[in-house]
Amino acid sequence: MNRRYRKTIIAGNWKMNKTLSEMKAYAEEIHSIMPKGKWCETVLCVPFVNIPSAVRLFKDCHISVGAQNCHYEKSGAYTGEVTAEMLKEVGVKYVILGHSERRQYYNETDFTVNKKVHAVLEAGLQPIICVGESLEQREAATTMEIITYQVKAALAGVPSDKMRRVIIAYEPLWAIGTGRTATAEQAGEVCEGIRAVIRKLYGARIARAVTIQYGGSMNAKNAHELLAQPDVDGGLIGGAALKPADFTAIVQAANQE
C-alpha cells in the first residue's frame, strides 16, 4: 500500500448470500468490532434487495455500500436489470463490474464491461473493475498479456479526469473460491503491472493515484502480507467477507503502519 498517493479500500463481495434477517444479525455483530482506522475505506457489496437496508444498517460503522453489477443503459426493456442511477438513488457508492462469475455464467464481455464502466462513472459512482487470468493462462506465461488487454478494454474512452474514481481489482480466476491464493509476490507483481499499464495510458501522476485491489481468497491470515505489497491497495473479499470477525481482521490488516 502507498497511502501517500491513494486510498486503501477493503470491499466485501457477498455474492448471492445473506437474507435481510441474516444481514441484520451481521450488522449487529460487526458494529461492535469494526476497527475505526483512518486509513482504510470499507465497503460491502450486497445483493440488490438488501441495499436500502444495508445503507441504514452499516452507516454507524462507517461502511459504504456497493452493488455487484448494473446495466449500461439508463432505462429500457431489460427485465431483471438495474441502472447506475437507480443504485445511486438508494445510496450505493461502489459497483463491481466484470467479475469472473459474471463473465463465466452470464456472458459478460470486455465490451459490455467497458459500457458499464462509462455508465457507473457518468452516474458519479466508483467502479471496481475485475480483471484476472485462468490457471491455463498463468501456466502459459500469458498473465500480463491477458491482464493488459482486459485493463485497456475496460478503460477504453475513459477520460483522465475520471480515473481517480476507478478501482481495479486483480482476481486470478484460479484463486477465486478455491482456497488457493496468489503469493504476496505474485499479487504484487501483477498489481505493479496493472499500474504500469495505467501509466502508459494516462501518465505517472494518475497511475500512482489509482487504487488496485487484490481478490482471490484473501483472508484474515494472509491479508497482512498481501497488503504489505507496495502496489496492493486493498482487497476484494469473497468468503471471508461473510464472517464479521474475519472481515474486520482484514480491515485491521489494511490499517497496518
What does this protein look like?
The protein is an alpha/beta fold and 257 residues long. The protein has eleven helices and eight strands. It has helices spanning 20-31, 51-57, 84-89, 100-105, 110-122, 135-139, 143-155, 184-202, 204-207, 223-227, 244-254, and strands at residues 8-13, 40-45, 63-67, 94-97, 126-131, 167-170, 211-215, 234-237. An eight-stranded parallel beta barrel has the order 1-2-3-4-5-6-7-8, surrounded by five helices. Strand 3 (63-67), helix 3 and strand 4 form a beta-alpha-beta unit. Helix 5 packs across helix 7 (143-155) and helix 7 (143-155) packs across helix 8 (184-202). The radius of gyration is 17 Å and the shape is globular.
Strand order of the largest sheet: 1-2-3-4-5-6-7-8
Order of helices and strands: EHEHEHEHHEHHEHHEHEH
Average pLDDT over all residues: 94
Helix content: 25-40%
Shape: globular
For the secondary structure, the number of strands is 8
